[in-house]
Amino acid sequence: MRTSSSRPERLFVTGIGTDVGKTLIAAILTEALQADYWKPVQAGLEPTTDTATVRRLVSNPHSVFHPEAYRLQLPASPHLAAAREQVTIQADAFQLPATANHLVVEGAGGLLVPLAPGLLLADVIAPLGLEVVVVSRHYLGSINHTLLTLEALQRRNIPVRGLVFNGAPTPATEDFITQHTGVPILPRLQPETDVTAATISRYAPAFRQWFGL
Ligand SMILES: Nc1ncnc2c1ncn2[C@@H]1O[C@H](COP(=O)(O)OP(=O)(O)OP(=O)(O)O)[C@@H](O)[C@H]1O
Ligand SMILES: C[C@H](N)[C@H](N)CCCCCC(=O)O
Ligand SMILES: [Mg+2]
Asked: What is the pTM of this model?
């Protein structure tokens, strides 16, 4: 929930790929800021959706969960999932939900995921005036994927709020990315045995403090 004196945070959570922890970090940000949450494109509805997951993981009563612009059955790239249902994802469907609260928007997969022929996720996010939080999960190859993501954001003049490292601390990776790019670094996530509302509540204060709240 936003206090009257603070500027609302408008964050877009992207990642260096799919399954890197965007939903987990979006839930932490949503809880930390008592923000609203919006997942504009959901590809894959079973066993659950990211909106339902974040709703389950968030404890505060203020967050509002805005309906997806596109809910697609197939857990695949959005351009394929949409085509399977004879749906064409349209750029003008990406209008931010009307809210004065902090807002956390979660992408699908990585930054350059295709939505429709000639249309990438980055194309529809860029005009929305969001600041990006990039999630970098550790695996061999993640340095390259992280630098490519940051370079693509810079080339499109999309502002980067910061980077979250997800996984056991890996100094050789984290130090190189930090020094090479100079991007701000948010609190890190450790590998967790269980991801529950209690896990999210444990991380939220450090993120809240990082945002100066
Ligand atoms: N630090 C962690 N500890 C334990 N499990 C994690 C961690 N980070 C992510 N996971 C788990 O990995 C899986 C993939 O994470 P998540 O759903 O957040 O990915 P995503 O980037 O949001 O994917 P998508 O592109 O489908 O939105 C989930 O089961 C999540 O709970
Ligand atoms: C279904 C999956 N979990 C994500 N929602 C979508 C991932 C799209 C990846 C497309 C790609 O980069 O090849
Ligand atoms: Mg997700």
From this structure: 0.97
